[in-house]
Structure formats: structure tokens, C-alpha cells
Amino acid sequence: MGKLFLLLLIIVPALEIWVLILSGNAFGVPVTILLIILTGVLGAALAKKEGLNAIRTAQMQASQGQMPSGVILDGICILVGGVVLLTPGFITDALGFFLLIPQTRAVFKGFLQRIFQKAAKSGSFIYVSHNRWGRK
Predict the structure, then answer these.
(1) Per-residue pLDDT for 65 more than 70?
(2) What dihedral angle (degrees, nearest 10) is formed by the CA atoms of 22, 23, 24, 25?
(3) What is the superkingdom listed in this entry's lineage (predicted)?
(4) How many whole angstroms separate alpha carbon 102 and alpha carbon 78?
């Protein structure tokens, strides 16, 4: 997993620079900069909207005594999508929007659920319920 992460840290920025150079050549530098700013602003607005929706849904489920597990995964996706949109570049922006749009986020949520289930079955991920006050 560490090697994959290191590889991504090297390859993704190189690809981003390449795409930015192609965009600058095709559309011009001012338009490319404007597109980067526009995707950042739109991404921030979408992240705020989706984040607030996730918080409202989690509060509603918690008030009804339900465990908001699906909403927690939504929140993780929204957080990662928002952070990725802060980095300049079109590839990371595409990934960020993918994680922020509810219909496409469902694909990534399914992937996360499978990872968590495999980790729990293998014993590498253990959930321990903790009561702060020591009551049962």
C-alpha cells in the first residue's frame, strides 16, 4: 500500500503538469488559470452543499436511533473530494467532482465498504465500542 501511495505521489503531479501544459497550449494560459480557479470555486460550493446535507442526514438518523454508517462514508468521500479539489489540476479536479456528486460518489462508497469489510474479516481492522462513562 505504501509503494502505491508513493507511486501516486510521483505520477499524479507529473500528469497534472503535463495536462496543464497541454491546456495552456490549447486554450492559452489565462483561460487555463481561469478554469483552475473556476473549478476550485465550484468545487468548494459543492463540497459545502454536500457536506451540510450529510451532516443533516446524520443528525436525522441519529435522532431516530439509527447508526449513520452510510452518511459517515459520504462524509469521508466529501472531505477527500473537497481536499483534492484544492490542489490545482484537472485530473485531481475530476476525481474531486467524482467524489462530491452523489450519483458517482456511490461507486466509491461501495469500494470503501468492500475495503472495510475485508479489513474487518482479516482482523486488521477492529471496531471497539467505547462507552466514555464505563456504563453498559
Answers:
(1) yes
(2) 50
(3) Bacteria
(4) 9
